[in-house]
């Protein structure tokens, strides 16, 4: 399993970089767009293994699903809903590919699927959970947090994660709402899945943000450490419930401002302008 993941990561990374020179063939299209999350066997990754998918789904279904799985799910297609539920509602990103490109991908999957035995499609998925659990040190967790919020810059200049993502914790300033909250992503995606995603983000907005600024292996490792810890600790936290702290800070702030303003504005007129005219007319020189 470990070796498989490595192989996939290797090819994922490799094809990702040469893709601009690559031909529009099925292998390349698959490796570039799908292999981060899918194998062509029965092996699960982030998504289900696609081996022999043609025995289970029609070509039309395949094309519609891959173009926009969420549209199909919203329209209540029973197979689409079922697989979405089965995969803990991890959203498969829409693939901006043409019908003919998707047919090439399907051909590639069919040609490379394992021989189907007579006990048809008895899914022998090896769940990812079997992988040994990654262990992280406290230092890695801290580095991960600092990277996530931008206290440490990424070596290759990528943007901080919390410019788009939030996590539920007391320790960090609230993050962005541009993308999904990552508090529970670690177990949804598994360590291996998340590692693959960070190595070569399959989501257009995120891919663009890290284009040419990819994260290093150590950075990814620290981020995994942090996101795993966040998920484990989320129930001890009281996110955004500032309660009394908020009230007290607010009052202190108000008093502080009340002190600062008169000091800055010490030359302001103490009495109204009319008062001076009035006084002058009375002949009193103040
Ligand atoms: C970021 C990860 C990710 C990427 C990239 C991705 N998928 Fe998926 N895919 C999923 C997940 C997760 C599911 C499970 C269904 C769900 O959660 O919506 C899925 C489900 C599917 C299914 C339905 C499988 C079934 O058993 O019915 C097909 C078909 C599929 N993907 C094809 C593709 C193809 C082809 C590509 C590349 C063009 C691709 N996917 C890219 C994550 C991904
Ligand atoms: C430019 C915005 C942007 C930045 C910066 C960004 N992401 Fe993302 N990320 C996205 C988008 C968009 C998605 C797709 C899911 C969604 O629509 O929210 C995503 C998805 C993910 C997912 C999959 C979540 C899931 O449960 O399916 C993970 C994990 C993730 N990002 C981690 C990170 C980490 C770690 C960083 C910092 C290194 C980061 N992202 C930086 C935009 C961003």
Plain-language structure description:
The chain is mostly helical and 286 residues long. The chain folds into 3 domains: 2-127, Cytochrome c-like domain (Cytochrome Bc1 Complex, Chain D, domain 2, Orthogonal Bundle), CATH 1.10.760; 138-236, Cytochrome c-like domain (Cytochrome Bc1 Complex, Chain D, domain 2); 243-281. The chain has 13 helices and no strands. The chain has helices at residues 2-18, 26-33, 53-56, 59-67, 69-74, 78-86, 99-112, 138-149, 185-199, 204-209, 217-233, 243-264, 273-281. Helix 2 crosses helix 7, helix 8 crosses helix 11 (217-233) and helix 9 packs antiparallel against helix 11 (217-233). The longest helix has 22 residues, at 243-264. The chain is elongated, with a radius of gyration of 28 Å. The relative contact order is 0.11. The structure holds heme C (2 copies). One heme C is lined by residues 33-34, 36-38, 46-48, 50, 53, 57, 62, 65-66, 69, 83-84, 87, 90, 92-93, 95, 97, 105, 202.
CATH superfamily descriptor of the largest domain = Cytochrome c-like domain
Q: What is the CATH class designation of the largest domain?
A: Mainly Alpha
What is the CATH architecture descriptor of the largest domain? Orthogonal Bundle
| Helical residue percent band | 40-55%
- What does the overall shape look like? elongated
**Segments where pLDDT lies below 50 for 5+ residues?**
12-22, 118-130
The termini sit apart by 91 Å
Q: What's the helix-strand series?
A: HHHHHHHHHHHHH
Total of domains: 3
The overall average pLDDT, rounded, is: 81
Percent strand equals under 5%
Cα-based radius of gyration, to the nearest Å: 28 Å
